[in-house]
Specification:
Length: 301
């Protein structure tokens, strides 16, 4: 990012979800995953296959304690992780993901199934420069299909909700903009929603986005088209989606969140915007803060 010290701080704080191994372990060397040791404290680890990209991806699934005790079906929260600098190997996962984030408890407390795909630093985009990278389609179609075929979940858009932190916050908001007929809303914390703001105004190193969208200076149109400030225009006049935008007042991405709030207000979109003390961090309190807003999604009361 702007300095090496800030980079280390950011990478340590970026969301990555508590991770563990399951009987169905993910071992796909071309994705960098080799997670083998079972550790039930983290959650249940599955794999799902992408026909589009011909790869297997790991996914953590957190079920409520009462799951399977009757015929009840649950809403789904697709929780998207943030960027990280460690390889997504068992060692990398254990260094970033920790069991203190509270996803298992939250699944029970909020009566939802929480699904956390591990995809690497791909920004949840269908890349315009690497045509084989279709990570937006992966989440919206293939992950949803996997989840609804395997688990007792409610199969309608009102009960499919995206959530995320940092890169995952961008992913959750952008995917609702792209696929409002699949997802009903996003719960986002500390997102980077606009390349122009981050690179021109906040002087970000573009190395991560460059691999997905191309250089900002050479391909500005790619970055503009994939900015949430632009993608929001697709939702004009729609009142059946909701966005919850949370940000710490000391978060280095604060400016992009204020711009997103202004865009939501300008479009008269249903939204909640909330500021809190603190910076770019993710912990159990933030998980619960985000999920508390599920009460605003009619079908998940």
């Amino acid at each position: 990012m702007r300095t090496k010290s800030i980079t280390k701080l950011i990478l340590a704080a970026f969301l990555s979800i508590p991770c563990l191994s399951h009987a169905q372990q993910a071992k796909k060397t071309d994705n960098g995953y080799a997670i083998e040791a079972a550790n039930k404290a983290y959650g249940d680890f599955y794999t799902f296959h992408s026909d589009t990209m011909n790869k297997d991806f790991p996914v953590l699934v957190f079920l409520p304690e009462n799951y399977g005790k009757d015929k009840k079906e649950f809403p789904v929260v697709y929780m998207l992780h943030g960027a990280n600098g460690a390889a997504l190997t068992e060692e990398g996962v254990r260094s970033i993901y920790n069991p203190k984030t509270g996803f298992k408890e939250a699944a029970t407390d909020f009566q939802v199934v929480i699904v956390c795909p591990l995809v690497g630093n791909k920004s949840y985009l269908n890349s315009p420069i690497n045509k084989e990278d279709k990570y937006a389609s992966l989440i919206a179609f293939e992950l949803v299909r996997f989840t609804e075929s395997k688990f007792k979940v409610i199969k309608n858009r009102e009960n499919r909700i995206l959530a995320g932190f940092s890169m995952g916050a961008y992913g959750s908001v952008s995917l609702v903009c792209r696929y409002p007929d699949i997802f009903s809303g996003a719960l986002a914390r500390g997102g980077g929603y606009d390349s122009k703001t981050m690179i021109e105004e906040l002087h970000w190193d573009e190395s991560m986005s460059k691999g997905v969208l191309g250089s900002y200076w050479e391909y500005p149109q790619n970055h503009h088209l994939n900015s949430c400030l632009n993608l929001m225009n697709r939702l004009k006049d729609r009142k059946d989606v909701c966005f919850v935008i949370e940000i710490g007042r000391e978060d280095f991405l604060y400016r992009t969140n204020k711009k997103l709030e202004a865009k939501l207000k300008d479009l008269s979109m249903p939204y909640i915007y909330a500021e809190y003390p603190g910076g770019h961090v993710f912990n159990k309190n933030i998980v619960y803060s985000l999920l508390t807003h599920l009460q605003f999604f009619k079908e998940t009361k």
